[in-house]
């Protein structure tokens, strides 16, 4: 029964997202995921997927970005510390990792598998809204190296391979005055990998 419910819901969710999400030419909705593949001036790939957790009988989201431009910068700088991530991605998170649950509808960190048409309708709208308003913008901010990504990194540095270097690169790319940046946050222990190295890099790179 649960497998049938899941199959039906996931089919309806995919259809709902295709009908309601505004997608660019670089985005494609596939089975249980949205792929973003940008080439040209921006060379980066992103993915937003939704998975089912058996022991919670509910869904969670996973997000990742692989930015060639940022990764080239990381390799050029060769920082004396490791990535914060256990993957080779530039950015990775899932909604089970959230300290403040923005996606979940219950304490366990998931959104319940809906059991009837009314619940399916409500769950579709809930997941769509969260993807549209929170998670897809977070991916696109990093893929496009927008200034808004700085606040994303500050809010959740552990989702980024090299949070300080990511911020530093975005500051320079967007010609953001340092007077517009909260340097206390940027040079905090949560953001930096090696404060002395990062502070020296800040002074020489910008």
From TrEMBL:
This is Uncharacterized protein.
């Amino acid at each position: 029964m649960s497998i049938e419910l899941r199959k039906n819901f996931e089919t309806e969710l995919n259809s709902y997202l295709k009908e309601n999400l505004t997608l660019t030419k670089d985005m494609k909705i596939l089975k249980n995921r949205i792929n973003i593949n940008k080439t040209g001036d921006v060379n980066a790939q992103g993915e937003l997927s939704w998975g089912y957790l058996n022991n919670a009988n509910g869904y969670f989201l996973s997000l990742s970005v692989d930015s060639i431009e940022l990764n080239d910068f990381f390799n050029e700088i060769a920082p004396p510390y490791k990535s914060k991530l256990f993957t080779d991605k530039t950015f990775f998170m899932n909604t089970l990792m959230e300290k403040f649950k923005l996606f979940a509808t219950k304490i366990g960190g998931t959104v319940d598998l809906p059991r009837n048409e009314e619940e399916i309708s409500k769950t579709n709208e809930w997941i769509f809204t969260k993807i549209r308003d929170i998670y897809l913008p977070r991916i696109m901010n990093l893929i496009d190296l927008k200034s808004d990504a700085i606040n994303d990194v500050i809010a959740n540095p552990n989702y980024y391979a090299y949070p300080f270097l990511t911020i530093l690169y975005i500051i320079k790319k967007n010609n953001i005055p340092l007077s517009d940046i909260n340097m206390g946050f940027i040079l905090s222990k949560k953001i930096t990998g090696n404060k002395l190295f990062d502070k020296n890099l800040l002074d020489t790179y910008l």
